[in-house]
Amino acid sequence: MFLRNVWYVAAQAHELTQDKMLARKLLGEDLVLYRDASGAPVAFPDRCVHRLAPLSAGRLEGDRLRCMYHGLLFEPSGRCVDVPGQERIGPNLKLKPFPVVERHRLAWIWMGDPALADPALIPDAHWLEDPAWRALPGYVHYERANYVTIMDNLLDFSHLGYVHENTLGGGRVSAEVIPKLELFDWGLRVSRFYSAVPLPAYLKNLAKFEGPIDRWQIYEWRLAGNLLTMDFGSAPAGKGALEGNRPPDALVFQTVQALTPETEGSTHYFWHVANGFNLDDASITAELHRQTDIAFAEDKFIIQAQQAVIDAHPDEKMVGIAADAALNQGRAILKRMLSAEAGAAA
Amino acid sequence: MFLRNVWYVAAQAHELTQDKMLARKLLGEDLVLYRDASGAPVAFPDRCVHRLAPLSAGRLEGDRLRCMYHGLLFEPSGRCVDVPGQERIGPNLKLKPFPVVERHRLAWIWMGDPALADPALIPDAHWLEDPAWRALPGYVHYERANYVTIMDNLLDFSHLGYVHENTLGGGRVSAEVIPKLELFDWGLRVSRFYSAVPLPAYLKNLAKFEGPIDRWQIYEWRLAGNLLTMDFGSAPAGKGALEGNRPPDALVFQTVQALTPETEGSTHYFWHVANGFNLDDASITAELHRQTDIAFAEDKFIIQAQQAVIDAHPDEKMVGIAADAALNQGRAILKRMLSAEAGAAA
Amino acid sequence: MFLRNVWYVAAQAHELTQDKMLARKLLGEDLVLYRDASGAPVAFPDRCVHRLAPLSAGRLEGDRLRCMYHGLLFEPSGRCVDVPGQERIGPNLKLKPFPVVERHRLAWIWMGDPALADPALIPDAHWLEDPAWRALPGYVHYERANYVTIMDNLLDFSHLGYVHENTLGGGRVSAEVIPKLELFDWGLRVSRFYSAVPLPAYLKNLAKFEGPIDRWQIYEWRLAGNLLTMDFGSAPAGKGALEGNRPPDALVFQTVQALTPETEGSTHYFWHVANGFNLDDASITAELHRQTDIAFAEDKFIIQAQQAVIDAHPDEKMVGIAADAALNQGRAILKRMLSAEAGAAA
């Protein structure tokens, strides 16, 4: 079950070009994506209306798409402008494009009722374009995990000391800090503050200070589009960083992480971790990307293993622990939104 | 859904020997095929009646087939002549052979009611034995395509300029020529004539003339057994070739192409392209075979890609174009024949 | 359908250690097995009660098992002794261990009602620890065979001359000897005696005598746990070996073979062939193991091929032969036991 009347990340900006189609499955539907002559993203179902041949096996002629089975040619609007061997082209020979909007270096797609596709609903991810931040695009393909199972992981920090014992780390303290949880219509905000803790391994090469440090993790999770944006960082302990007085040498980060269901059992995970310091040193962003990539592979391993067990035991109850508070709230809000959408459709 | 009371090509002559069984699935049924002592083809279900071990894991002893699980031995008639450890052999310990007839270097099998298996119904493919023609046997295994999806392709020429843009070619003209369509009880005949067109790339090395040329493609499609036989060729333009006056230097070809369902979702495609000129030059037939093989791989690519989309969207309507005329007729005749067979069985 | 209230072989002794968990599926259930501090085997379902992450992706800390998703720690009793970030641990945060008993170098597991798990019901396999015998553990993983299809093979000797023509051999005589069949509540005993037959190839290097020989095969098959134990051997012909007077130079063997269903369609096959002569020569046991391993791969090949045909033809009747007597009885007893267990559960 997916929310449909929401914007999802379909692709990262660098994935879309005018030369080559990107074939990608989203919400169970095969699509082709490319850029038209103006550079704007275009998304079609990946099948010709004639005999259902995949358009991704076709070719771009300028910004028109030629199906390479029988040669039908379509404009970015979906209109068919050439049928070899035929003069008149009926109005039903038409592709139905999906609304797609590029913003903040992400291509957002609307796969529900097109009449409701209001670009004003696209959530903020401005850090990806803001000159005060630097980020590299990251991607994990979850071949075997439902998006909610991954959402559980993103809303839970007690796993940090175990799944990421040798990378992000944090030890038991990640589980022991009591988060502040705020609920909204759109999702939830979780704030976690760590006072005077050791400097984690992955920050050792970046910090101009040593431990103890104060750390903060303030993240907002939007159920519509499954977007996590997190403000996190570290500063020398006891200088008031947790009260908002972040010193100039604070290491400040901002993530943009989006889960887009591929199918009920597989998920696209688009992520960025931006740094807001030492902007002239590209190696920092590169190293941050590299380390995050390793850590997210650790998540993928355990989440896919967990998903296999869940799938094999569909009726098995889970026994809750205190650390489940945020993910339980996240699931409750999602359930409410799914019901609302189902009700609106009925 | 398959027609059952018809002859299908089970194998090409060279595939059957007296030394070794051929294991092949046809119409969803696993079979073993070999030649008996007289050289005649034999076909059995690929399972021993005793404990269902596959006979293809057994061995030939002369022209008798030994199951190598418990040693039962069967004659080409299907009679069991040896059960180790047992004197008397009951009449139900018997394999049920399928009617198989070899003709024109093809082994034809009847998998419906054996009482109806009249060899007079085997369609003509005499070119494969006729000294006036030369051909090499070709084969494509469609692992993921229903035979009707491939039939669509064989009955359609508008794809030539796109799927085979760099091989068989023909450009838009293939789509633009209006075919003459004749309907019969057994299927349909399509005749296509091209006046004064360029010499296609794949004929450049064979022709003693340059373009413009006249080309003809006259093909008959039999729904029973899915046999396409095509008379096609080229001659210098304006010499009357399209009216039947084929000059001595005309390049004349004859194909024999047969689709035999393997399962509902996979198909055997047995093909030959014979040349009726320069019979002393074996390299012509070899080159013709090589080029056709490449072109048929292009078909396989697009057809299997199309089949995957069709399977994922079983309820999706196709929107017709003018070039669909022949395949629509072919599907209509097939539907009629399937209904007739279902009615006769009821 | 499996019997559940019986002991099954879960693992061979050498597979279980204190350092590393063994992940294994038995009767459709994923388990982890290891040894506790005392060396006793422990078996848990391979899923954490918290969020169902596989425990086999966790780690042992002493003889306690840490789930490496959120860090929950469990004792061999199943009790949870640590939940990071939480003081009080509720009683439902508990793993449910399976009864496991190690005996005769086999770990026996009870996956039915734990209240019925009486170790006195574990069948005898003392030869694996008896100093009068030597054996090496063997294992075959049947990825694609139901245990009953393999049971058929173990209860049938007519296949020896065909499946094992070039290894165990025996030729037609294996099929022609009439076995003595005795039925019991627990299963059946089959006794086969061969007077004055040739020495089979695989014994040529072991015997201090040449043919003709007398051979015996006396095997007991227990349906509960699918355990075959076979007393077999060879001695010079005519010295009374078949009447129980086994001479000192007789080659005496004892097998212990156990089938444990992995799923309905796959099976674990744990086997040992012990020799009771030349105990000082380890190469005899090694060679016996090597040859048996090859022969059992022959069985696996034909059985899995047969299973594929059975699965494709679920309604196909099998036609019986005389050699099926023992396996028919085995199936009848199994059916009775399955009904009894289903009745007891109702």
Task: Explain what you see.
3 copies of one chain form a homotrimer. The first copy, chain A, has 346 residues and is of the alpha+beta class. The radius of gyration of chain A is 22 Å and the shape is globular. In chain A, strand 7 and strand 8 form a beta hairpin. The first copy, chain A, has helices at 147-154, 160-163, 173-176, 282-312, 325-345, and strands spanning 7-12, 22-26, 29-35, 41-45, 59-61, 64-66, 73-74, 80-82, 100-103, 106-110, 137-142, 180-183, 187-197, 213-222, 227-236, 251-263, 266-275. The mean pLDDT of chain A is 95. In chain A, the strands form 4 sheets. A 7-stranded antiparallel β-sheet of chain A has the order 11-17-16-15-14-13-12, covered by helices on one side. A 4-stranded antiparallel β-sheet of chain A has the order 5-6-7-8, with no helix packed on it. Chain A has a 3-stranded antiparallel β-sheet with strand order 1-10-9, with no helix packed on it. Chains in contact: A-B, A-C, B-C. Chains A and C meet through helix 2 and helix 4 of A and loops of C.
